[in-house]
Automatic annotation (TrEMBL):
It comes from Sinimarinibacterium flocculans. The record marks 29 as: Deprotonates C-terminal active site Cys. The record marks 36-37 as: Contributes to redox potential value. This is Thioredoxin. One of its GO terms (cellular component) is cytosol. The keyword Electron transport applies. Disulfide bonds join 35-38. It comes from the Bacteria.
Amino acid sequence: MNPQISAATDASFEQDVKLASWVQPVLVDFWAEWCGPCRMVAPILDQIADEHPGRLKVVKLDVDANPQTAAALGIRSIPTMILFRNGVPAATQTGAVPKSRLDAFVAPHLAAA
């Protein structure tokens, strides 16, 4: 995994995402190993994480291994990316989308960071 991207679990989600999003925006990728579209988005998330060190934290959460968090946030399809700011979801993007669309998705939150 890209060193700019961390993995969250049900147990660490509060610390890794909600509390961290008070410092900088946190983009959470809800994914699973068997998900083809998730694998398509992974290299794009690597690029985004590399392009914004210190301005955006990127976190991956495997929904199969961590069903409680995914259920609590109402994740119904993957990949779903939720951008957290100040401890709460600020924006959601579902599905495999091109890099230009993910850049546009995170850009307003980086400007506010």
